[in-house]
Amino acid sequence: MLLLSLLTLVVSLVLFLGVAEIALRFLPVSSTLQSLAVNSGQPIFHFRPNRNFANSHGWTMHSVTRHRINNAGFVNDQDYRRDDPLPLVAVIGDSYIEARMVPYAETVQGRLARSLAGERRVYSFAAAGAPLSQYLIWAGHAVREYSARAIVINVVGNDFDESLASYKLGPGFWLYSPDGDGTLRLRLNDYDPGWGITILRESALARYLILNLKFYETIFRVRALGELIFGTPAQAETRYAGNTDASVDAVRVADSLKVVDAFFRDLPKVVRLEPQDILFTLDGFRYSEAAREGRGSYFDLMRRAFLEKARSLGYEAIDLEPLFAARNAQTGERFEFEDDGHWNGNGHGVAAEAIASSKLMARLRQ
Hints:
Number of domains: 1
Structural class: alpha/beta
Distance between the termini: 84 Å
Number of helices: 14
Strand content: 15-25%
CATH topology: Rossmann fold
Shape: globular
Low-confidence stretches: 228-236
CATH superfamily: SGNH hydrolase
CATH class: Alpha Beta
CATH architecture: 3-Layer(aba) Sandwich
Number of strands: 11
């Protein structure tokens, strides 16, 4: 009798999961972008090319956006060409530039591509979770493979400590690790998706649980599962400022400052462009009250250090924080989603306007 009850329970569960899987395939469940294997033979992180995907929010799957992964394996409506004679501006970043939650036309790169049509190409190289160390690799790739003449790098709150292999596993990304004498060096963290990840990617039910219901936030708390499935260590409950842990740990700050030094040490030799050809934009606290509350936090310290270092070396670096605050005071606009801290279309608009008004763009237009 017990065996029959267990069998009935198992069959019922399988049927329920099967029905849920079939039903969700007809709904706009968020898609995975399907990153490909990265290793010494294929050292550039990118996604499976030439495919469409959808993004949605929450259990109701609202705010649906639809995107294209192009021939080069990046989220962009354009195909990338190596033989295009138009000079290239490459926009580099993490999920803010990947921007799966914003229609392409409203993104920084979409707006710039539209305004520079016929004069310049604008390609984006980005993926969620990428840190400063990975930005170097994409920037160098854009110069070598697509002859980029100018680079725009967007920097956000978690780009500093997560550039260190000791703080983030970062599957498929280039991260900093100390060598024998303690000097930080770029090293590739190989990535092979494996059959388990492939099954999760193809399952609408798994994607709904992980991407829409944020089931991974629970999994992150179980370190072994988090590392197995997502390649990132477990995270404790933290207070956030600038979308990163606000706590000012002396070791974390010191390590992050070393990353900034290593980044600017490697930038000239990896990217091989002059400082005048590289522009940085830095996210900020966006609203006056948030800026006051964030003073002295980890991101506040790091963004100030980064701005100072970049400018001292002759790089143009735009602080977006006062631009966001001024726009909000004038119009009352919000720059992120209610249930997502990434920039919405308004946020991308402020960043795009700042880039369009930069010294870099003025020089390119001469």
